[in-house]
């Protein structure tokens, strides 16, 4: 198959990386948004139980998108896995600690009737939702701004930044945008999944705020990209079929460089457009009381915002801010052709199966969570 | 070129050992209990008797409390390769990453998607439908173990891959060899059976606790019978398959086998098995040893005339490979400077199998090509893992393995004779046996992973080169952080399991005990 040459496989895996990240944000995203909202949209024990049951049966499956994302980066983009996770070391530790609290919070919360016990786990769930959402956004901001790493002759990476250096005005905007996007998605899900009543009303109220915040923050982020001195470009020519060795790319900082692709490929403008239209649609849906429209809007917002990042940066995956020869791109950071091909076959077989049974599981649990169900059913975590 | 702080290696190893051993407290119970739930629920579906529903739901509750920590700590494991072992990730990601990704796609999605239905779906699914969901969870869990152990088996026996000087990493040449790696297959069946034993001992022990107390006896009797049958089958297989795992070492990790046996020198065939003794790593001899003639030869080579190579002879062989590795290293450096250098390419091709041995010298010199004979000898002796640790870990593990067969054989006989309700001596024994298989499993991890040292990937990448370029301060932060978090969660989990056991297998009348008004103060208040 000539079509599936090394260059094509790399582009496919770059796209699949996007699919995984978007899959994660679309599914586990609303779980995180819901958890971040938990202490605010639900005041009584029964209300909190309802919110938890709205995501309870599914969050575990959704979390696998994150785990699969990690595994797929390891297998298809080993350089990206090695450089980013060791570079963002303490940030990763924060995310992992927060994510560890989440499963435990979901499952241990109701094991004791003690209100203090339950309230503590509710806050653990809040942390498990908010912290990863924030840190992921900050991390994406740092990827856009370039990370301070060098790769030496043995292709070992050296990182020259600390935890605090991750937080700049631009990366904070990205972090807050990520929170707004996922809170919007979470409130849209709660509006669909919880019976009409106080929780439902509060979720809608937070949804309105999150939608407006998402539009504003996305606009600010876009302004940073256009005029904030952010962006990179490649100076030398690179062989898209060549062996994966980052030291073959010479990169220089280029203010506004992340907008170059939109001139080259005008169709890409669809992504940032979705990033603006999505939250507005969600807002419209919430105001009109049309929950499917609100959820569609929040989903489109997620797709638009994430693919804006990916498309703007193409072919970069992780540019280096300090060494012109160390940047990781689609052409220099992938696995071997054999591994990419094998993994593609596995994905083509199993991903549709996963989507199929996830849909079935959703159907089994379909319907709104009600006060009645929460107070009588024995089946909960 | 900067050098790594040596304490980074030790701290990274400490962190990996802590998080892996902790993760491995929960995973085996998940593996075994999930299949025991399938058995219990199958009986419920076939007989329709409420008592079996009670049995299934009670153990399901214990399963849930345990499962969640397995998942939570597994998150750390997956990302730790990138955070703490980033050079490892670069060096072998092309092969090692694939089984991890496939695990997520094929196994973990299955397990995690259906575990939600398992807990929330009792009233929404038919009986058979729910059983099917339980089965899928068990299948997913066990498939997960398969892929993880394929990845781990590759670290023990790195087949189907070769070093590419252009990308400075190992790349796949034969994925089937990775999949059907005999070490991986042997490890999988041995580890999974060990999980089944752990679950059986837990179920048996708690059932015996109820029998001792005279509480929930109808429930306890049924749990006892399932555990006795399942436990006997799995304790037999864990020992037989463990032997298979040892047999696999004969070809692939002679050094690990020699260290387990404290065989300092090659013995004339047929080799005797050292039952016990006190290995002395300084004098390189084993004192006060008691031998069983012929047994080692039988176990390790399945013959009376095969011999087991001793450590001293293996070290000599390592020296030869290090010398060859120096040539390979020099060739790689030449190829880095000029990829078209045909002479260097030819040298590299001839010596590439030993490149990893050349890298062992990096502990002593920046450029392995300049090492002195003394340094080469030192590096060769580095290939010997901690002999007393291997020797004793293996023996205690094996002893527990045989004790488990005795325990379950007794349980099985008692149940067959219908004497299992009154044998109080046995109830006490089974209760005290609960921690033993966990101890054996952790020791098994030590034998497998410490026995692999000094290699991250056997013969390919030394552990001390595999770390990330981190600071000791960053590592201490995460070690302390994880220890506090994990420690707190362990206390909570154990308390919850004990409370659940104390509460007993009652089908709760009031599933949502009224907690009163939650204060629920918003964060600003």
TrEMBL record, chain A:
Pfam families named in the record: Cyt_bd_oxida_II
Location in the cell: Cell membrane
Transmembrane feature ranges: 12-42, 63-80, 86-102, 123-144, 164-185, 206-230, 264-286, 293-318, 338-360
One Gene Ontology biological process: aerobic electron transport chain
Cellular component, GO, one term: plasma membrane
GO function terms (MF aspect): electron transfer activity; metal ion binding; oxidoreductase activity, acting on diphenols and related substances as donors, oxygen as acceptor
Domain of life: Bacteria
Membrane topology: Multi-pass membrane protein
Signal sequence, start to end: none
Main location: membrane
Coiled-coil intervals: none
UniProt keyword annotations, A-Z: Cell membrane, Electron transport, Heme, Iron, Membrane, Metal-binding, Transmembrane, Transmembrane helix, Transport
Keyword Transmembrane: yes
Family, similarity comment: Belongs to the cytochrome ubiquinol oxidase subunit 2 family.
NCBIfam families linked to this entry: cydB
Name of the protein: Cytochrome d ubiquinol oxidase subunit II
Gene source species: Sphingomonas suaedae
Gene that encodes the chain: cydB
UniProtKB/TrEMBL annotation, chain B:
Keyword Ion transport set for record: no
Gene Ontology BP term (one): aerobic electron transport chain
Single GO cellular component term: plasma membrane
Membrane topology: Multi-pass membrane protein
UniProt signal peptide: none
InterPro entries registered for this protein in UniProt: Cyt-d_ubiquinol_oxidase_su_1
Membrane spanning stretches: 20-46, 58-75, 95-119, 131-150, 188-212, 224-242, 396-417, 429-448, 473-492
Keywords: Cell inner membrane, Cell membrane, Electron transport, Heme, Iron, Membrane, Metal-binding, Transmembrane, Transmembrane helix, Transport
Stored Pfam families: Cyt_bd_oxida_I
GO molecular function: electron transfer activity; heme binding; metal ion binding; oxidoreductase activity, acting on diphenols and related substances as donors, oxygen as acceptor
Location relative to the cell: Cell inner membrane
The family this protein is said to belong to: Belongs to the cytochrome ubiquinol oxidase subunit 1 family.
Descriptive protein name: Cytochrome bd-I ubiquinol oxidase subunit CydA
Biological source species: Sphingomonas suaedae
């Amino acid at each position: 198959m000539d079509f599936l040459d090394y260059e094509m496989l790399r582009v496919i895996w770059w796209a699949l990386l996007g699919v995984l990240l978007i899959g994660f944000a679309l599914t586990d995203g609303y779980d995180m948004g819901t958890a971040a909202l938990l202490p605010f949209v639900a005041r009584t024990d029964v209300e909190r139980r309802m919110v938890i049951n709205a995501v309870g049966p599914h969050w575990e499956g959704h979390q696998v998108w994150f785990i699969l994302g990690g595994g797929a980066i390891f297998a298809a983009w080993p350089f990206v896995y090695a450089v980013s996770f060791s570079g963002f070391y303490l940030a990763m530790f924060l995310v992992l600690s927060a994510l560890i609290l989440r499963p435990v919070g979901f499952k241990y919360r109701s094991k004791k009737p003690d209100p203090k016990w339950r309230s503590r786990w509710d806050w653990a769930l809040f942390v498990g939702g908010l912290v990863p959402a924030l840190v992921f956004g900050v991390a994406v901001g740092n990827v856009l701004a370039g990370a301070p790493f060098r790769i030496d002759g043995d292709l070992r990476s050296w990182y020259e930044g600390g935890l605090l250096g991750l937080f700049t005005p631009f990366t904070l905007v990205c972090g807050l945008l990520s929170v707004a996007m996922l809170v919007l998605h979470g409130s849209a899900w709660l509006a669909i999944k919880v019976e009409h009543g106080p929780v439902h009303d509060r979720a809608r109220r937070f949804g309105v705020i999150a939608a407006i915040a998402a539009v504003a923050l996305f606009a600010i982020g876009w302004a940073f990209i256009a005029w904030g001195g952010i962006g990179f470009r490649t100076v030398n020519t690179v062989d898209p079929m060549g062996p994966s060795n980052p030291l073959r790319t010479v990169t220089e900082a280029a203010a506004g460089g992340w907008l170059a692709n939109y001139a080259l490929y005008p169709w890409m403008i669809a992504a940032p457009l979705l990033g603006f239209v999505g939250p507005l649609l969600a807002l419209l849906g919430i105001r009109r009381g049309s929950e499917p429209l609100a959820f569609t809007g929040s989903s489109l917002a997620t797709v638009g915002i994430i693919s804006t990042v990916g498309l703007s940066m193409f072919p970069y995956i992780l540019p280096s801010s300090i060494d012109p020869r160390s940047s990781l791109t689609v052409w220099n950071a992938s696995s071997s052709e054999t591994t990419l091909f094998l993994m593609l076959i596995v994905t083509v077989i199993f991903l549709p199966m996963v989507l199929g049974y996830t849909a079935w599981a959703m159907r089994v649990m379909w319907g709104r969570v009600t006060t009645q169900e929460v107070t009588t059913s024995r089946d909960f975590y | 070129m900067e050098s790594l702080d040596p304490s980074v290696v030790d701290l990274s190893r400490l962190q990996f050992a802590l998080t892996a051993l902790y993760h491995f407290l929960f995973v085996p119970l998940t593996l075994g209990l999930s299949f025991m739930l399938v058995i219990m629920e199958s009986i419920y579906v076939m007989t329709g008797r409420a008592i079996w529903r009670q049995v299934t739901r009670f153990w399901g509750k214990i399963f849930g409390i345990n499962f969640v920590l397995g998942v939570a700590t597994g998150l750390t494991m997956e990302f730790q390769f990138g955070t703490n072992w980033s050079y490892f990730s670069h060096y072998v990601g092309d092969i090692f990453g694939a089984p991890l990704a496939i695990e997520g796609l094929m196994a973990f999605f299955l397990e995690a998607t259906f575990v939600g239905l398992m807990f929330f779906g009792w009233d929404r699914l038919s009986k058979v439908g729910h059983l099917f969901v339980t089965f899928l969870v068990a299948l997913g869990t066990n498939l997960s173990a398969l892929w993880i152990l394929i990845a781990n088996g590759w670290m023990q026996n790195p087949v189907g891959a070769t070093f590419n000087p252009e990308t400075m990493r190992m790349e796949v040449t034969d994925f089937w060899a990775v999949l059907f790696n005999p070490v991986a297959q042997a490890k999988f069946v041995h580890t999974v059976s060990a999980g089944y034993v752990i679950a059986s001992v837990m179920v048996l022990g708690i059932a015996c606790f109820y029998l001792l107390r005279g509480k929930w006896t109808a429930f306890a009797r049924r749990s006892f019978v399932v555990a006795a049958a399942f436990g006997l089958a799995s304790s037999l297989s864990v020992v037989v398959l463990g032997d298979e795992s040892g047999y696999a070492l004969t070809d692939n990790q002679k050094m690990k086998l020699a260290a387990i046996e404290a065989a300092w020198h090659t013995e004339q065939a047929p080799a005797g098995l050292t039952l016990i003794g006190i290995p002395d790593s300084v004098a390189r001899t084993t004192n006060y040893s008691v031998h069983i003639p012929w047994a080692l030869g039988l176990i390790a080579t399945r013959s009376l005339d095969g011999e087991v190579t001793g450590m001293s002879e293996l070290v000599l062989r390592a020296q030869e490979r290090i010398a060859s590795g120096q040539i390979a290293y020099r060739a790689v450096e030449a190829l880095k400077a000029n990829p078209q250098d045909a002479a260097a390419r030819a040298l590299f091709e001839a010596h590439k199998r030993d490149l990893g041995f050349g890298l062992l010298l990096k502990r002593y010199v920046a450029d392995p090509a300049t090492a002195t004979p003394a340094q080469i000898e030192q590096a060769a002796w580095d290939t010997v893992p901690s002999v007393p640790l291997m020797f004793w870990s293996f023996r205690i593990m094996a002893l527990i393995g045989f004790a488990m067969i005795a325990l379950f054989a007794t349980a099985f006989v008692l149940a067959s004779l219908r004497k299992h309700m009154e044998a109080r001596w046995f109830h006490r024994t089974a209760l005290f046996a609960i921690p033993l298989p966990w101890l054996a499993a952790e020791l098994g991890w030590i034998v497998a992973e410490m026995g692999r040292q000094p290699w991250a990937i056997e013969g390919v990448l030394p552990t001390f080169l595999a770390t990330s370029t981190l600071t000791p301060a960053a590592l201490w932060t995460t070690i302390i952080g994880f220890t506090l978090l994990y420690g707190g969660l362990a206390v909570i989990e154990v308390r919850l399991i004990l409370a659940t056991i104390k509460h007993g297998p009652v089908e709760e009348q009031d599933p949502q005990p009224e907690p009163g008004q939650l204060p629920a103060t918003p964060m600003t208040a």
